[in-house]
Amino acid sequence: MRAERLKAERLKAGRFLRRFARHRLAVASALLLLVLAVAAAAAPWVEHWLGVEATGISLLDRFGPPSALHPLGTDELGRDVLVRLLYGGRVSLFVGVAAALASAVIGTGIGLLAGYFGGRLDDLLMRVTDGLIALPLLPLLIVLGAIDLTRLGIPPEVAGSEDASLLRIVVLVALFGWTTVARLVRGATLSARRRDYVRAAVAMGAGSRRIMLTHILPNVAAPAVVATTLTVGNVILLESVLSFLGLGIQPPLPSWGNMLTNAQELVGTAPLLAVWPGLLIFLTVIAVNLLGDGLQDALDPRVVGKR
After folding, report:
1. pTM (2 d.p.)
2. What percent of the chain stands above pLDDT 70?
3. Could you tell me which residues come within 8 angstroms of residue 213 by beta carbon, excluding any fewer than 6 positions away?
4. pLDDT score of 106
């Protein structure tokens, strides 16, 4: 029985990979995101190989041109642009993935509960969801991002740390960005709970928790995966906007957003300082969206059949 199940899972995975491979833009996007992730992870090694420091200031090397020591030149403080871009990618990609995953977990849980139990619980959870959807997300994040954490009882050394600025964005996006996943999972759960295999599990005495986690969740995961993938790009944009406004990742920790902030007054004299982080944000968001389209097509064989 177990061998048959493993064989079925392998066949299912093979079909998914074949469908995904047909979407060439999605494959190229996945490869691009992989390259960006590997490059960001290798930032310390690149820093050591070049013999520079991401936070090292050298006023004598301000606005330096590309060279063997500084492949993309230096910024207004003499810091290596390439190394800072790699470290900024670590921050931006981490925030995007972590916030998207946290939102997916919250949204999936709420959608499962609302769709499976229905009734008053469904009404309550969906009204909360509607209320959050009605809120303007960006102005809300700007207001919450400007709150002084020390007034909430957090020690100043913790509130001013680099980790605090990272966690603040992840928590804020997770608390207000789960609504799309919740809606999708609820709709899929409403459909799945009427299926014969769920009714058979209920007739055999399976508990609600087992039914939701074992029988319903694997069959409603596809829309959640696609929505989560698309959320990554939105979160990276939000982080960039907040950092651009000075409310996101705080220097000296680099991110693509605050690198744009630092370059906004230098566009006339050193435009490449704004071009590089802006280009990486653009490519990442486009690649994530195309990857989401490819996953949607691969997880829905009817869409592939229409191509």
Report:
1. 0.81
2. 93
3. none
4. 93
Report cis status (omega within 30 of 0) of the bond before 252: yes
Are 26 and 44 within 8 A, CB to CB? no
pLDDT band, residue 8 (cuts 50/70/90): low
3-state secondary structure 125-185: HHHHHHHHHHCCHHHHHHHHHCCCHHHHCCCHHHHCCHHHHHHHHHHHHHHHCCHHHHHHH
**Neighbouring residues of 23: CB distance < 8 A, sequence distance ≥ 6:** 293, 294, 297, 298
Q: CA 204, CA 96: separation in Å to the nearest integer?
A: 42
- Tokens found for residue 56: 């090292």
Average pLDDT for residues 158-175, to the nearest whole number?
A: 79
DSSP 8-state symbol, 266: G
Please give the Cα distance from 23 to 139 (Å, whole number): 36
Q: Would you call 194 helix, strand, or coil by DSSP?
A: coil
pLDDT confidence tier of residue 3, bands split at 50, 70 and 90: low
Q: Which of 103-107, 116-120, 239-243, 290-294 has the lowest mean pLDDT?
A: 239-243
Mean pLDDT of the chain: 83
Joined tokens for residue 150: 């020390």
Distance of alpha carbon 172 from alpha carbon 103, whole angstroms: 10
The full DSSP string for 65-87 is PP-SSSTT-B-TTS-BHHHHHHH
Is 129:265 a contact under the CB 8 Å cutoff?
Answer: no
